[in-house]
Amino acid sequence: MKKIFLIIISLILCACHTTPQLEGTxxxxxxxxxxxxxxxxxxxxxxxxxxxxxxxxxxxxxxVIRGKMIKKxxxxxxxxxxxxxxxxxxSWESMKTTETIQYYFKNxxxxxxxxxxxxxxxxK
Length: 124
Prior knowledge:
Layout: H1 2-16, E1 24-28, E2 43-47, E3 52-57, E4 63-72, E5 75-80, E6 98-106, E7 109-114, E8 117-123
Antiparallel strand pairs: 1-2, 1-8, 2-3, 3-4, 4-5, 5-6, 6-7, 7-8
């Protein structure tokens, strides 16, 4: 009986502590972690269940990048649509239409790192 109780408690605790999901609408914090002089709070990132995404300038209404994400361990491969207005966010200017970036969650925030620039997003 004691073993069953411990197993049930363990399952409940595991279910309560889950990793946030990529899916949803995310708002970027004011600046990348590594450079407080760059403004990024204009960015909104929408991620669908199928990992298609749209990152856009919520202040001006302009598209930034959009396409499909492929998730693997702690990386995301971004396969961006070939748009006339493909315009990576500030501090990601060297980004190509297909890039692999690092990602992780911390304190319910999504951290996306490309080269040496980490954009931090929180859920709306």
